[in-house]
């Protein structure tokens, strides 16, 4: 059983910073792609950033402000968010593709989400 737990959300003023964490735990053989999504009420989830062993990518609206990174020893992926804007307000979700121990296959897992609210 694999679990993703996000943390680090909260209320911050515009221009401030937050660091989100996505901790992957359980029977893990290897972690592949990890992504951060965000969602506002009534809208679809939007991909914000991704990270693989080959590199990272960020959506244009957050480039230069957000940085995704990972600590393989801790099985944790981070999203450093700087110069936050009110339009960054959303629930942020972590998605990971994980190969479970004892399995030949990778499966998709989602965290429960963490709320980020940016006040103007």
Please supply descriptive tags for the structure shown above.
mainly beta; 4-stranded antiparallel β-sheet
Give a written overview of the molecule.
- The strands form two sheets. Strands 2, 4, 5, 6, 9, 10 and 11 form a seven-stranded mixed sheet that branches.
- With 120 residues, the protein is mostly beta strands.
- It has strands at residues 2-7, 10-13, 18-26, 28-39, 46-52, 55-58, 66-71, 76-81, 90-100, 106-110, 114-119.
- The protein has no helices and eleven strands.
N-end to C-end Cα span: 41 Å
Strand content: over 45%
What kind of sheet is the major sheet?
7 strands, mixed
Roughly what percent helix?
under 10%
N-to-C SSE string, H for helix and E for strand: EEEEEEEEEEE
Helix count equals 0
Look at the structure and give the mean pLDDT.
97
Number of strands: 11
Poorly predicted residue ranges: none
Shape: elongated
The structural class is: mainly beta
Cα radius of gyration in angstroms: 14 Å
Explain the layout of strands and helices.
Elements: E1 2-7, E2 10-13, E3 18-26, E4 28-39, E5 46-52, E6 55-58, E7 66-71, E8 76-81, E9 90-100, E10 106-110, E11 114-119
Parallel strand pairs: 2-11
Antiparallel strand pairs: 1-3, 3-8, 4-5, 4-9, 5-6, 7-8, 9-10, 9-11
């Amino acid at each position: 059983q694999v679990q993703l737990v996000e943390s680090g959300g909260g209320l911050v003023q515009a221009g401030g910073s937050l660091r989100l964490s996505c901790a992957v735990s359980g029977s893990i053989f290897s972690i592949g792609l990890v992504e951060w999504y965000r969602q506002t009420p009534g809208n679809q989830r939007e991909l914000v950033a991704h990270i693989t062993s080959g590199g990272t990518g960020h959506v244009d609206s957050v480039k230069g402000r957000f940085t995704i990174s990972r600590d393989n020893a801790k099985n944790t992926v981070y999203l450093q968010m700087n110069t936050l804007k009110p339009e960054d307000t959303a629930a942020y979700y972590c998605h990971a593709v994980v190969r479970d121990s004892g399995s030949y296959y990778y499966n998709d897992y989602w965290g429960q989400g963490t709320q980020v609210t940016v006040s103007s």
